[in-house]
UniProtKB/TrEMBL annotation:
UniProt KW keywords: Hydrolase, Metal-binding, Zinc
Domain Amidohydrolase-related span(s) in chain numbering: 53-430
Example of a GO biological process term: allantoin catabolic process
The name this protein goes by in its record: allantoinase
Origin species: Turneriella parva (strain ATCC BAA-1111 / DSM 21527 / NCTC 11395 / H)
A GO molecular-function annotation: zinc ion binding
Stated family: Belongs to the metallo-dependent hydrolases superfamily. Allantoinase family.
Enzyme Commission code(s) on record: 3.5.2.5
Assembly behavior: Homotetramer.
Source taxonomy: Bacteria, Pseudomonadati, Spirochaetota, Spirochaetia, Leptospirales
Keyword Nucleus: no
Length: 450
């Protein structure tokens, strides 16, 4: 079956323009003018008019938690939520599943667990923890897209944090394997006038003071130094502190291969507006002040920050301490990958971004980061992955529309403009219209990325 998808607002070659995209099988075969005369009766034509035809979103930071903690989330629910949000590719973090993905056996168990459950394509990271250096090259050979470590307690004992010595031992192996090394960049140090002086754990300010910007700033300086010394591709995940941006910019200006992401919640919310007791906003690093948020947006615009991701990190309502509102006890993690495109679009549009800039930050740049050459843009030869996006429709996020496992999310109640109408994965509609019920996604292992 050949299909021609037409839109007067297609994102092609980093610009928005009228186009018709010819899909044959799983691939994009040709890009034609919007009004091209096909002259063939065996081509299905779908004309979206003024709806935007965008590359499928690539979210390279998602905690799916299966196997082992599937009551928190799972492959079926997470990828169904992704499909509803125009996301066609996820990359799963090596925690909070059990076993954690620090061995080939654990990776194999994860790939087995996702069999026939994926609504979108899904790649995997491995983990670097103290003592597993011998497992890193086998994991690279088995197809992981990169590796993740923590410089601070991860929240689960199976995934302990690394030291500088552990990082130095891992870097040559990962550099040789050509995969990025991702770091949760917080270095714990004594907190001055922090949470110990505050007694009310329901106050968001108590939690914010417990994880100061200095922890991030110090960790980013360490990462910048190591990247400069080794010329290895190091990556700072979920940057929250805008103070660290000058370090990152100066390091990159020297040609050092360090990259950085931020998250939709850091770009959307600010500490001044988070209600006390609303633990659905808790994440690590924390959501910071309004001026900090605006600096993050400026760095998206100027390219200091490479891309934005969801860091979808759900848990059960009990672990989120919904009943107590205790920020210091609640699990730290934001749930809401389904709304990533809409949430980012709202913030970006308010700051003068166009759709091509939105797509670059959510699709092209993250796909390039993990080496997925067939993903992230609408171009001949690439996978036919699309999000059909109505930039004008307004909607309110309600619990009943959520496809991920638990309806715990700070986005509930948010009024948004811009809604995903359809999602296509490798030439097949997987959400909206006549989308089938059967999951169509596949595991992505590095050997198959080209």
């Amino acid at each position: 079956m050949r299909t021609l998808l037409k839109s007067r607002r297609a994102i092609i070659d980093n610009e928005v323009r009228p186009a018709a995209v010819l899909v044959e099988g799983e691939k994009i075969r040709e890009i034609l003018p919007y009004d091209a005369d096909i002259g063939s009766s065996n081509i299905r034509i779908v004309d979206y008019g003024d709806l935007a035809l965008m590359p499928g979103v690539v979210d390279t930071h998602v905690h799916i938690n299966e196997p082992g903690r599937t009551e928190w989330e799972g492959f079926s629910t997470a990828t169904a939520a992704a499909a509803k949000g125009g996301i066609t590719t996820l990359v799963d973090m090596p925690l909070n599943c059990d076993p954690v993905t620090t061995t080939v056996a654990a990776l194999q168990s994860k790939v087995k667990a996702c069999s026939n459950l994926l609504h979108v394509d899904c790649g995997f990271y491995g983990g670097v923890i103290p003592g597993n250096v011998a497992d890193l090259e086998p994991l690279i050979d088995a197809g992981v897209l990169g590796f993740k470590s923590f410089l601070i307690h991860s929240g689960i004992h199976e995934f302990p944090h690394v030291t500088e010595a552990d990082i130095r031992a891992a870097i040559p192996i990962l550099k040789k394997g050509g995969v990025p090394y991702l770091m949760h960049a917080e270095l714990e140090s004594p907190v001055i006038n922090g949470s110990k002086a505050a007694v009310d754990h329901r106050r968001y300010s108590t939690y914010l003071a417990s994880r100061p910007r200095k922890w991030e700033n110090d960790a980013v300086e360490l990462m910048a130094r190591l990247a400069g010394e080794t010329n290895a591709h190091l990556h700072v995940v979920h940057l929250s502190s805008s103070d660290a941006l000058s370090t990152l910019a100066a390091t990159r200006q020297r040609g050092v291969p360090i990259t950085v992401e931020t998250c939709h919640h850091y770009l959307t919310y600010c500490a001044e507006e988070i209600p006390d007791g609303h633990t659905e906003y808790k994440c690590a690093p924390p959501i910071r002040e309004r001026e900090n948020r605006e600096q993050l947006w400026k760095s998206i615009a100027d390219g200091t920050i490479d891309f934005a991701v969801s860091d979808h990190s759900p848990c059960t309502p009990n672990l989120k301490e919904r009943h107590s509102g205790d920020f210091m006890k609640a699990w730290g993690g934001i749930a809401g990958l389904q709304f990533s495109l809409s949430v980012f679009y709202n913030g970006a549009k308010a700051r003068g971004f166009d759709l091509a800039q939105v797509s670059r930050a959510l699709s092209a740049s993250p796909a390039a980061f993990v080496g997925l050459k067939d993903k992230g843009s609408i171009a001949v030869g690439k996978d036919a992955d699309f999000a059909v996006f109505d930039t004008e429709v307004m909607f309110r996020v309600e619990p009943g529309m959520i496809a991920h496992r638990h309806d715990v999310s700070p986005y509930i109640g948010m009024q948004l403009t811009g809604l995903v109408k359809e999602t296509w994965l490798r030439g097949q509609r997987v959400f909206g219209g006549d989308a089938p019920i059967a999951p169509a996604g596949r595991p992505i292992l590095r050997s198959s990325t080209g």
